[in-house]
Amino acid sequence: MKVTFPNLGNIVTIAGKALLLNLGHEIILPPPNSKRTLDLGVRYSPEYCCLPLKIILGNFIEALEMGADTILMVGGWGPCRFGYYSEIQRIILKSLGYKFKMISLEVPHGNFVRMLRYVNLIKNKHSLNSLIKAGKIAWSKVIIIEELEEEALKTRPREINKGETSRILQQGLLFIDNTNSIKKLKEIKQKTIENFNKIKDPQKNNPIKIRLVGELYTALEPFVNYNIEEKLGYLGVEVERGVSVKPWVSSIFNLNFLKGRHKEKNIIEIAANPYLSISVGGEGQPTVGNVVLAAKKGFDGAIHVVPFTCMPEIVAETINKKVSDDLNFPVLTLIYDEQTGEEGLITRLEAFTDLLKSRKNKLVL
Length: 365
Prior knowledge:
four-stranded parallel sheet; single chain; 8 strands
């Protein structure tokens, strides 16, 4: 099989590639997300669909043009339309004349025969032990990349020279991508953190702190959000993610054995309960819970990123206005679609950070 899967930041690309290569698959990665990717997705998607569906469709078209014959996609269920992505994309791509196999990984809900068939396809005639070993390496990359990206978010507003944090992070990611040993991955992590510590200015020890919340793809894919984490770092903001790949994967595949999964989920749900006591699909309820927790933990504000027409995040946006009023906690909502302009986004980020800095200075005085 010549397998492809969608771009999603560094984590999915690097870890997904490691898993499939270790199982002997030929990988055809889509090119990095670009204006062409977006244009292709917009051209062939229904207008009312959200931005992630459109860009991922663009990824698949570009990869199929490069010779991919199998698409690996994650499925889902519930009120969020994410669960329908793979089927909608399959129908669109078939109507365009592409020939391929679509593998949609999701909790089987009784259809274990199909799930087993897909697992066997991914296993690619390798032993179960080989699958487990490949999975461990890929999962180690997920964890270490997330930890390094989180460390970069703390380092960037404290760096002495602009751009050093991103340079060190990219170097570490390159080493991770080319490493197939869990021991060496840990060594790369330690070395990269040491390099981060060398570039910090000790005088920049009290930056404003923002929690980034919202729909996972929009929050984690830099092309979609216009590198919001990096932009905020250069504005002197320490960003903490309210969404990440690790709990998302464990939730999708119901990996209850993953350490801390229940504890983390319960804390967020409990925080959201006074405002939103049930799941509305996607990251809707966690978005509200994360904003409440950020306010209670002394963050200076939160930024909520929303793909246009996303129902769970529209619900969360409405409720966050009440949370913001009750807790006197600033929340900026940014809505993304194919018409979103970078300059307007920068202006809003600058205004919001100026507001937070002003509030913080008044509290200090």
